[in-house]
Amino acid sequence: MTPERLGLLWGVTVFAGAGARLLAAVSKLPGVVLLLLSGLLIGRSGLGLVEPLDLGSGLGTVVGLLVSLVLFDGGLNLRFPGETIKTTVQRIAVLRLLISLGAGLMAAHWLAGLNWSVAAVFSAIVLATGPTVVTPLVRQMRLASPLGDILEAEGLVLEPIGAVLALLLLELVLGDLHGWRELVVGLLLRLGGGVLIGAGVGWLLSEMLRRLKPDQASGLPLQLTLGMLFLMYGVSEWLLPESALPASVAAGIVVGRRPATNTADLDVLIQELAQLAITMLFPLLAADVSWAELSPLGWGGISCVLALMLVVRPISVGVATAGLPLNGRQRFFLGWLAPRGIVTASVASLFSIRLEQAGILGAGRLQGLVFLTILMTVGLQGLTAQPLARALGLIEPEPEPDEPVASAETAFKSGQVLADPGQ
Length: 423
Prior knowledge:
It is a single chain. The chain has one domain (54-396, 408-414): Up-down Bundle (Na+/H+ antiporter like fold), CATH 1.20.1530.20. Residues 405-423 have low confidence and may be disordered. 74% of the residues lie in helices and 0% in strands. The protein has helices at residues 3-27, 31-42, 58-77, 83-110, 116-125, 131-141, 147-174, 180-211, 220-239, 244-257, 264-286, 291-294, 298-320, 328-336, 342-357, 363-391, 408-414.
């Protein structure tokens, strides 16, 4: 690829993303939906201006570095205000992992026609909701607590697990792993190793930030953070492939919770960079979607995605939240909103290439079905989330100038966000 063509690729991609953001700000439409549409417009399904595969092996590295930045930002802002919300997130994560994985496997095989091994990889890839989609939606619609905290935390917890599990299932299909015992050991090793690496890097970074003097703080905290984060990504992927995802979340959590690190200004800068990463990644990965990969799926593929949206998600959330102090409206909304995001798209693109190189049948259908899942969940749920939340009375009202804002846990316990209107 010539330097001129490479420059054009990035220029068109960033401009398309920025234009989508501008249109979202003017029209009040969900930004993630418009980012997805902008990628379809400039990519293989539209004008053909951007071909992500032209980046070659660098595509995975670029996507990985930017995704690690987004997940670090999520970890930096992740809060469990009290044991009640923490228990809710833990139950949703564990039970969804068990229910959605098996149900997604059967739906992909019986409805979309994937063979069992490729269907298992698909089920792991689409297991998690995408924090890169959920977080902008939650913030844009001002979703009332505790739903926003639960949805953001669910994505951050399950995203690394789903990506690592999908990689191990892929290696099992390709013959690089032998048996389920190696898969379980590999899953625990990568998740545990990633968390340990991330926690260590987070502690070291927080100590550096804490020792900076005020006259040294101009730009240096951000530079240190990016340097440590990207170095951690490279080392993690070198030691344990896919461990950089849990490492990024763990590092963000440690830095965000360490005392006296003065991360308020850093948090704003990281959040801006994470938004820029999303603005670049969504159009870039959506540009890889080809109608030729979607059309052969037909009604079987659409039925598979609808089953995940309308049956599997509501059942898994219903089981996970049984006995918890959530009312019916909140359970209904949690059961509806589950868009997939950037990590899902990037994993599908890279895994499809490896399956095709290995001569595994169904590689193209796997990528097509994953992108169909992203298109349908982001499109349908992204467009309906705010009207549905408003109809259910789950939108946070605009705070009065002198009105104190209650914490999520206080509201959770007092019933301010749980009681039905009129009770």
